[in-house]
Design goal:
The complex is a heterotrimer of chains A (91), B (281) and C (285). Chain A is an alpha+beta fold and 91 residues long. Chain A is 13% helix and 22% strand. In chain A, 36% of the residues are buried. Chain C has one domain: Ferritin, CATH 1.20.1260.10. The chains are: A alpha+beta (91), B mainly alpha (281), C mainly alpha (285). The complex binds fe (ii) ion (2 copies). One fe (ii) ion (FE2) binds next to helix 4 and helix 7 of chain C. Chain A: InterPro entries: PaaB (IPR009359), PaaB_sf (IPR038693).
Chain lengths: 91, 281, 285
């Protein structure tokens, strides 16, 4: 793929938190932001977007027990679904 | 989520009451100038205004068409979506501008048989022969590789951005509004394509070789675009220099001539519409 | 059954979601990767049959709608690959499995689209069938997959609507256009019914997938729902639907690679992949 994996967070409108919406690949931070705009906010203007490299996220374990399966190999913490607040926003 | 099990509440419920904000790019309405006052201010030369709208509209439509050919063929999905977004922005500008040209000066619209349901914007797009088109050869040029596409897009966006910036003060309020909307879009197109040019120029040996080649092939395109809009030369030269600097690329010689790919483009684009001159779509 | 497995079974049984870092049986993970990947491949390959008409769309509005629609499908592919990546596979690996034929995509995209009416028919019937299949998946047991499906389903309903609207407009046009619509529906109806998969009696994995909450309804249930939903729409449109008798051997042939356009679709994908290799490489440095 084109560059590293980035996680994307979108503020659907003012007054709401940024919510995790998915991920994408990009050459660098600036392109990740642009790709996120094109891919995840095609239908609405006026939103705020965060992108963060998946390998920069530190995540907790879902419970005390260590999972037998590490979901993403060497990039264990790539999908921070704990950041989710309620439903996926209506984009 | 609307349940689809119940025929009374299927996805067709909203068919007549679509929320245009959720239709991709406002495609929920038929007339691009719907709700806009068609009045042309006194003192505005209608023939010149229509010609200007047509020229800007043609340019946007042709470039949009070439970009749309990338759909399902881009280097990755992210880029596929991004190219389609640029194509859709330009297509949106084209619709507004062609429709405006037709309102300002109905004489520019090709004559169709009586009773034809074809709207003016489509008559202009699908029933006009090549000699009547006023876009650049650069815009109509057949696609090359991805490097060629981002270099062309950068050159065309750089010129168009300055042209539209200057039109935001035009006495025709419709053209001024289209230009203001276009400035936002073009700023993004220039930025997106410029970043790709830099990334490719600084990437691998192969990508640098291809980017240099594209720049050379498109040197006559740069010359053509500046010939069409000489007034913007100083502004846009500075931007190109900045890009070349960031990419560590040399400015190519401006020799050479561009092929005329417009007839082929139109033969394809107009084929279905012309096969059904009385058709409704 | 150990503690982890019991915990997993309990989570699924109370219709709660499994999330990426949870323990999961290897069979569950493998089934999910395969299902999500094949779904993603279908979205991406599905760009081609309609995408072929973008440059010839007969009005500027239709060109806009069609390009936006096919673009959405690229987005759907991306959301789904992104969900699959939470299970420890990369998009590169999945694309390689698509192109080697190790993973399949929906059989429907192996049929040709010789007429502009096919753009409408695909929106109406193919996206319509996809909605029937996919709405229940919004409640699937794996969190990232379900969330991707919520977004996809919202966009699919616009796809179906634009397709139906195109057909409706063409039906109000010339006799030739009405004939185009009927001819297109004649070609796509049975392949659309096949989109729900083989009859339940011949679908060995359905029971396991339903127990795991990956699937929520059987193939035949979903197919019946689709037929029931579509009949009044066909009537409103003024087209006749061919019978519902499907040649299941045809489905087998098309899925196993012997459909009218299998080779063409994969070659197109492979070409785009190869042509873009130097770009991806340059951007990954
Ligand atoms: Fe889709
Ligand atoms: Fe769709």
């Amino acid at each position: 793929m084109t560059g590293p994996l980035y996680e994307v967070f979108v503020r659907a409108k003012r007054g709401l938190n940024h919510v995790h919406v998915g991920s994408l690949h990009a050459a660098d931070d600036a392109m990740a932001l642009r790709n996120a705009r094109d891919v995840y906010t095609r239908r609405n203007e006026g939103v705020s977007i965060w992108v963060v490299r998946a390998d920069a996220i530190t995540a907790s374990s879902p419970d005390e027990k260590e999972p037998l399966f590490d979901p993403a190999g060497d990039k264990v913490y790539r999908h921070p679904t704990f950041y989710e607040v309620g439903d996926v926003p209506h984009l | 989520m609307s349940p689809t099990s119940n025929v009374d509440h299927g996805p067709y419920d909203g068919l007549d009451a679509t929320d245009p904000a959720h239709w991709a790019f406002g495609t929920g309405f038929a007339d691009p100038l719907d709700g806009i006052d068609p009045h042309v201010p006194d003192g505005v030369d209608r023939v010149a205004l229509a010609a200007l709208c047509l020229r800007l509209g043609d340019e946007a439509l042709l470039l949009s068409h070439r970009l749309s050919e990338w759909c399902s063929r881009a280097p990755d999905l992210e880029t596929d979506v991004a190219l389609a977004n640029v194509a859709l922005d330009l297509l949106g500008q084209a619709r507004l501008l062609l429709a405006r040209a037709a309102v300002v000066e109905p004489g520019v619209v090709p004559e169709l048989p009586a009773g034809s349901p074809v709207p003016a914007e489509d008559a202009l797009a699908f029933f006009r022969d090549p000699p009547a088109w006023t876009g650049s050869r650069t815009a109509a040029l057949a696609n090359g590789d991805f490097g060629h596409t981002v270099v062309r897009l950068f050159l065309a966006s750089t010129v168009r951005l300055v042209v539209l910036q200057r039109l935001t003060g035009h006495p025709d309020p419709v053209l001024a509004a289209v230009a203001a909307k276009g400035v936002k879009e073009l700023t993004y197109h220039r930025d997106w394509s410029g970043r790709w040019v830099v990334t490719l120029a600084r990437g691998t040996r192969e990508s640098r070789r291809r980017t240099t080649a594209a720049l050379g092939q498109l040197a006559p395109a740069w010359a053509e675009l500046l010939d069409r809009d000489p007034a913007v030369r100083d502004d846009v030269e500075a931007v190109l220099d900045q890009l070349l600097d960031a990419s560590d690329l040399e400015r190519p010689d401006e020799g050479g001539e561009l092929p005329d790919d417009l007839p082929d483009l139109l033969a394809e684009m107009q084929s279905v519409a012309r096969a059904h001159p009385q058709g409704r779509w | 059954m150990d503690d982890l497995e019991r915990q997993f079974e309990e989570t699924v049984a109370r219709h709660d979601r499994i999330e990426p870092r949870d323990w999961m049986p290897e069979g569950y993970r493998r089934t999910l990767v395969r299902q999500i990947a094949q779904h993603a491949h279908s979205e991406v390959i599905g760009m081609q049959p309609e995408g072929a008409w973008i440059t010839r769309a007969p009005s500027l509005r239709r060109k806009q709608v069609l390009l936006a629609k096919v673009q959405d499908e690229a987005g759907h592919g991306l959301y789904l690959y992104s969900a699959a990546e939470t299970l420890g596979v990369t998009r590169d690996e999945l694309e390689a499995r698509l192109m080697s034929g190790a993973q399949k995509y929906s059989s429907i995209f192996n049929y040709p689209t010789p007429s502009y009416a096919d753009v409408g028919t695909i929106g109406w019937l193919v996206d319509g069938a996809a909605i029937c299949n996919q709405v229940p998946l919004c409640r699937t047991s794996y969190g990232p997959y379900g969330r991707a499906m919520v977004r996809i389903c919202k966009e699919e309903s616009f796809h179906q609507r634009q397709g139906f609207e195109l057909l409706m407009t063409m039906m109000r046009g010339t006799d030739e256009q009405r004939a185009m619509v009927q001819e297109s529906v004649d070609r796509f109806w049975k392949p659309a019914l096949m989109m729900f998969g083989p009859p339940d009696a011949e679908s060995p994995n359905t029971a396991r997938s339903m127990a795991w909450g990956i699937k929520r309804h059987t193939n035949d249930e979903l197919r019946a729902r689709f037929v029931e939903m579509t009949a009044p729409q066909a009537e409103a449109l003024g087209v006749t639907l061919p019978g519902n008798d499907v040649d299941w051997d045809e489905l087998k042939r098309v899925v196993s690679g012997d459909g009218p356009c299998n080779a063409e679709r994969l070659a197109h994908r492979q070409q785009a992949h190869d042509d873009g290799a130097w770009v991806r490489e340059a951007a990954s440095r």
